[in-house]
Amino acid sequence: MVFNQDVVQSFLQRQKMATLGELKEALGSSGTMTVFRKLKALGYRTSYSHRGKYYTLADIPRFDEWGLWSYRAVWFSRDKNLLATTQRFVEEADAGFTAGELQGLLNVEVKEPLLQLYRRRRIDRDDVGGRYVYFSLEPSVRQEQRLRREGRQAVLEMGDSTMQAELSPEVKAAIILFFSMLDEQQRRLYAGLEAHKFGHGGDRRIAEFFGLDVHTVARGRSELFGERVQRQNVRKKGGGRKPVEKKRQK
User: Fold this and answer.
1) How confident is the prediction for the chain on average, in pLDDT?
2) pLDDT (mean) for 187-215
3) Of all residues in the chain, what percent carry a pLDDT higher than 70?
4) What fold does the segment set 68-137 form as a domain?
5) Is the pTM of this model over 0.85?
6) Quick count: other Cβ atoms within 10 Å of Cβ 33?
7) Spans of all domains in the chain
């Protein structure tokens, strides 16, 4: 008996996706290989969620900026399967990913694929702040990811530190790197927030740490707690007053 692949194509174009059982029913066939031959001829993708039990045509998904597409809570990836998707996300991560962070993005449990990739030496991992963080295996990329991760960790802990001098040179460098990635307004507001945590003398303390004018820190604190934050027309990176250290070098 000959089964027309147009039946599969029409069915998936209407339904967007289907299980193997639903495709068999649409074809009127009980043969698994028959369905897969039709899917292969048409070009198909398998869901990375729901243990890969859903199928769609290759040209149906409209992937977002993350390379993901979902329909009725079923998730598909441009990388086709969960293992490849997990690896790409880790390799392209700004500061690596914990399992929980990546699960929040992919909407599926990722501990097992992360562990598989790590054991196969396709990604790396390290303990940062008491949690495993997964990084790219490429040394230069991994180093940048690690620095940014440590910078974020230091930012979270910064308010609890009694003295900035207690921070190691590596952590200080990571904080400065993180700070440099912010735009002008974000730097001012962040500095103001940290100054507020220190209380009396905080403006000068943070100004010295980041090489800012103390008035810039005070302004950021005032804007933040006075709820006068400008959400648009933020000056591009490099604009505004130069850091105090740079002024002194002239």
Assistant:
1) 83
2) 83
3) 83
4) Arc Repressor Mutant, subunit A (1.10.10)
5) no
6) 8
7) 5-57, 68-137, 145-231
